[in-house]
């Protein structure tokens, strides 16, 4: 057993450090690329659960994490029920979709799929925590109605792209853009095993290799845009590709990041508000990401 003073987790709500907090862990499964660099001692997000044996201080999801740790729940349904219990999931549609797309198909082998934490997926990337996926689905729900167009920038494992595809259905369009080709290939394999497989086959769901800062103009304009990595500022191309009446959810910032909700009004003007503080990997170039940012 070892004690850590500071750790960075990505793809989760940022929770301020507690003065006396001990993180216990057991040795981690090795992964084929190095994790993001450890932060200085000034940063210590508490929602870093690479391992279900971690105890995480002041997270509002602490109760849920303890529950999972203790009982080893292995089902999407139980994960969803707990996100509902904590008020993260509030709608029937979001709960149905998160139950239907089994997270276990999207995390690397040996990774606990239902623990409320981001997990390493290689290439200095993570799959975001279930509470962040749920938060973003809730925020975008009205823009993910059947027939609508959705863009998932930094689609990683493909989990959220698959959720979007189920929500917009065969008449809609769900597009993932990810700049690591290997992640695109594995995300397509993941989706093929999931409830979204028919949509991939029929072509209303697709995942592409590309620089997500440029969006994916071919299927624009979008009713919903999700960005899964933190941008220094909102990329202009993404605002351009948002439909009037459309909504984008994007983490913005470097050390301090906020999940921003960007609404394009019917007259084309844009309103931006902060939803919550978060911690995500950066939206950056492929080279910067592979060398560790
Ligand atoms: C926190 S991960 C989230 C992945 C996805 N939402 C999930 O949960 O599986 C962020 C992803 O953004 C990707 N990314 C970072 N910068 C990018 C860029 N400029 N263009 C496309 N993808 C990018 C990373 O490779 C990584 O897969």
Automatic annotation (TrEMBL):
* Keywords carried by this UniProt record: Methyltransferase, S-adenosyl-L-methionine, Transferase
The record's annotation in PANTHER family points to: PROTEIN-L-ISOASPARTATE O-METHYLTRANSFERASE, PROTEIN-L-ISOASPARTATE O-METHYLTRANSFERASE 1
Q: What protein family is recorded?
A: Belongs to the methyltransferase superfamily. L-isoaspartyl/D-aspartyl protein methyltransferase family.
Q: Kindly state one GO CC term assigned in the UniProt record.
A: cytoplasm
Broad EC category:
transferase
Q: What start and end residues bound the annotated signal peptide? A: none
**InterPro entries named among the record's database cross-references:** PCMT, SAM-dependent_MTases_sf
Q: Which organism is it from?
A: Actinidia chinensis var. chinensis
Question: Methyltransferase: present as a keyword of the record?
Answer: yes
Any one GO biological process: protein repair
Q: What is its EC number?
A: 2.1.1.77
Give the reactions, separated by semicolons, that this protein catalyses: [protein]-L-isoaspartate + S-adenosyl-L-methionine = [protein]-L-isoaspartate alpha-methyl ester + S-adenosyl-L-homocysteine
Taxonomic superkingdom = Eukaryota
Q: Which protein are we looking at? A: Protein-L-isoaspartate O-methyltransferase
The GO terms this record gives for MF are: protein-L-isoaspartate (D-aspartate) O-methyltransferase activity
